[in-house]
Each structure stands twice: as C-alpha cells, then as structure tokens.
Amino acid sequence: MARISFTQHLRAVGPTDPASYDGATLADVLAAVARDFPRLPDYLLDDQGKLRRHIAIFIDGVMAPRDQALARPLATNSEIHIFQALSGG
C-alpha cells in the first residue's frame, strides 16, 4: 500500500494523518482516497481531471511533473506527499 500525506491546508478536505491506500498509479490512489474524502478531488483536480497548477506532488522523494504525475506507477511501499504550492508576489 502506498502511504500518502497532505499539507495542513488540504487536511481540511483529506486525511489529517498519513494514510495507506492501494493503487497501481497515483490516479488510482487518489481515487481510493476520494472514496473516503469526497471533497478532496475538487481541490486537487480541475474540471478536466488534471492536477491543478497549485498542487505539487512528491513520490518517493522526487517531485513528479504535473502532466505525468497521475499516470505515474507506484511501488507497493511508495511515499506520496501532496503540497499546495504557494504563488504570488
């Protein structure tokens, strides 16, 4: 099972502690998390099912390119960290 954790802001709509979910890809794991936390996808994905610009995802310590992250294969012991990136001036 992949272990997933979220930044504090996303914990308002997702798991408050690191949690384990099954899935062959990040999209699979996020779908599993969404079954328990149905508000989470609206914060992570746009209306076309792509990751929003302000989301940064690290899989096993490496930042996943936003356009490839959802299809990224996961190992059974993968560590996923999802951050809400900040922008502005």
Tell me what you see in this structure.
With 89 residues, the chain is an alpha+beta fold. It has one domain: Beta-grasp domain (Ubiquitin-like (UB roll), Roll). Helix content is 18%, strand content 24%. The protein has two helices and five strands. It has helices at 26-36, 40-44, and strands spanning 2-6, 19-21, 55-59, 62-63, 79-84. Strands 2-1-5-3-4 form a five-stranded mixed sheet. A hairpin with a 2-residue loop joins strand 3 and strand 4 (62-63). The longest helix has 11 residues, at 26-36. It is globular, with a radius of gyration of 12 Å. 22% of the residues are buried.
Summarize the structure.
The protein has helices at 26-36, 40-44, and strands spanning 2-6, 19-21, 55-59, 62-63, 79-84. The chain is of the alpha+beta class and 89 residues long.
